[in-house]
């Protein structure tokens, strides 16, 4: 691969949101993406440096992927070779992903076994109370009394933590969400307070299921969905409906409700960037195409539904 081709490939990977320090050929390489925090490496690429130089790349977290070919235009014969290499890379990627999912599933199970129900008066209960949220009746949230906070290979300390089960549309555990706290229920002084573990399956459509769908007065089976845990619990307090947490704006965009649900309330954040509103709007349009009723509800002021709950309780 010459300098120009290397530069073109680096630009293509960067345009796809991948952060690569040095291009490696001949194997599947994991790398960081622009959205990765800490030690996460959601990106991947595979460079075939043969007669036709081809690279396949993507993001395990979002499922996005692409193909780059040196020089752009290829002959029919070369195109067939490119397609064969892409199939090979896909098989390698899926095998690696499955190995990683299995390893992560084992780690999640170990962490889950260390957790216990949220204790009244404990760090998690105090944290939620400080956000104006009563102790929720759900097994999707738990507490860990002494969770290590890793920064690379170093443990920065041990903290109480709120642990949330992230499950896919079929109810399978695909991740655990961690919120690091102090013993008196404040956010811990750590680089990243809220973190996901390594996924044990696809996060597309996954959520933290805080309650069960209910029937409204019109006989519709309804459910709300918001981005974060605190936002979802606060919205549930405000509107009196169960609200699940989609974890992020991307998760909200790909949210998949149970088939029995007829009406979904999309309780988006009112953020200045418009990211949350756009994700909720995209989700709503997709759900309507699939036959669901969907309503987009946004706080009047900048912030999320937890901010709204606290403001109302303060009489603002």
Estimate what percentage of residues fall within beta strands.
25-35%
- Gyration radius, to the nearest Å? 22 Å
Order of strands across the biggest sheet? 1-2-3-4-5
Unreliable stretches covering 5 or more consecutive residues = none
| Shape verdict | globular
Total separate domains: 2
Q: What distance separates the N and C termini?
A: 63 Å
Sheet of most strands: 5 strands, antiparallel
Number of helices: 7
Going by helix content, strand content and strand pairing, the class is alpha+beta
What is the N-to-C succession of helices and strands? HEEEEEHHEEEEEEHEHEHEH
Q: What's the overall average pLDDT, rounded? A: 91
Helix coverage percent: 25-40%
Number of strands: 14
Question: Could you give the topology of this structure?
Answer:
Layout: H1 3-15, E1 18-19, E2 28-33, E3 43-49, E4 53-59, E5 65-69, H2 76-113, H3 123-130, E6 141-151, E7 154-167, E8 173-180, E9 194-196, E10 214-215, E11 221-226, H4 229-239, E12 243-245, H5 249-253, E13 263-267, H6 275-289, E14 293-297, H7 305-313
Parallel strand pairs: 11-12, 11-13, 13-14
Antiparallel strand pairs: 1-2, 2-3, 3-4, 4-5, 6-7, 7-8, 8-9, 10-11
Model description:
This protein is an alpha+beta fold. The chain folds into two domains: 107 residues, no CATH class; 200 residues, no CATH class. It is built from seven helices and 14 strands. The chain has a five-stranded antiparallel beta sheet, with helices on both faces. The relative contact order is 0.09. The mean pLDDT is 91.
